[in-house]
Structure formats: structure tokens, C-alpha cells
Amino acid sequence: MRPALPLAGALGLAACRSVPALAPIVPAVARSLDVPCTLPGSPAVALTFDDGPHPQGTPAVLEALAAAAIRATFFLVGEQVEREPALAAEIVAAGHEVALHGHRHRLLLRLPRAAIAADLDRGSAAIGDATGRDPRLHRPPYGIYSRAGLGVVRERGLRPLLWSAWGRDWRRRATAQSITEMVCRELRPGSVLLLHDADWYSSRESWRATAAAIPRIAERLAGQGLTAEPAA
Predict the structure, then answer these.
(1) Whose CA is closest to 137, among 97, 197, 90?
(2) Mind listing the pLDDT tens digit for each residue in 172-183?
(3) Whole-model pTM?
């Protein structure tokens, strides 16, 4: 029987496995793992939406984007795509990019490697079947990678992408103004902005404030001479 690891060794091993989880909040960690939070060299800003599709939220966001002449990237959840395949197809038909947010919205740190692989495969298949387009980008639920998860993502030929600014639009008290102020705080070419077009995993009807924020965000972009394009 193998002896138990000393406490310090066990803690060190756990820390090593969970280091990727720090990437969304510690830019140096993201850089060390080669997990982009921006799009270096891009002259445009990428507006991205997580957690959809949603039968009310996604159409509202699509309408606001069309009015603002903005093309965005939607990180879709496979289980929601299976429920709303026509809506996923509508995203692509409107000129937007689709990407993978997993099949189920689960924290990767809690999943073994095999479960992560199965989740990615099912989510990718759901998006491909619904839209005719295989996702090329991946963002994990909660923006948190495990070391195993990051490895599987890359093995599948997917490119990880986090964000440089978020609107905290999933909160119950978020408003169009608060979302705009947060997500536009440090706009620059290559910025990746995180919003949500669904309330499956957040405060009920939070997508309403997000949709209302889009015209304000478009005004901020135009005021700084910036355009928005899909991330992929």
C-alpha cells in the first residue's frame, strides 16, 4: 500500500491541478497557460454572450445586435441547443459566430477527464447538428478551467478564450447602465467583452438588462472609433 502524501505535497498537487482556475482573475496565470483573454492584433472588439440559446433572451439580444449592426460570438450550451436547435441556427443565419460553452453548465474542477471529454463531444455535436457549423472556440462554465479540462479542450482542436471585461449582467440588480459601465471600462482594440443572453444559470430575466445595454455599448464603441466583430 502506498504511503499517503505529506500534507504539503498533497496541497501542492491540488494547487497545481487548480492553477488554471485562476486564469479569469489573474492575467499572468492566463498568459502562462496560453489562455487568451483578448484578441492580440485585432483592430476590433469581440462582444461575446454565454449560456444560450434562450427562447426569450436570445431573440432580444439578436434584435438589439441587428439594430446596432454588431456581429457577436455566442458561447452555446449543448443541452440548451438540443432544446432550441432552430434558435441556434438563427444565430448563425444572422451572421454571428457560435462557440462551445460545454454541453452541461458544470464546473470543470469537479469533473474527471473522461467526463469532460464526453461533455465537449456532445456539446460540439449538438451545435454542429443545429447550425451546420463546428465550434472552434471554447469557454468553460464560470470561466474556470481545470488542468485536465484545458488539455482535453486542446486535444479536441478547440481554442480557449476567456475575456478582458465583463458586465456582471447575471446579477439580479444589474441594470443597462451598470452593465455598460463595467463592460466598457477599459475598451481597446482586441478587448473581449463577456455578457449573457440567457438566465438558465443566473438571475431570472437578467437578459432583459443585457439586451437594453447593447445600444449603449454600441454608442461607447462608436465614440472610441471601435467596431465589434466575431471572435473567431
Answers:
(1) 97
(2) 999 999 999 999
(3) 0.89
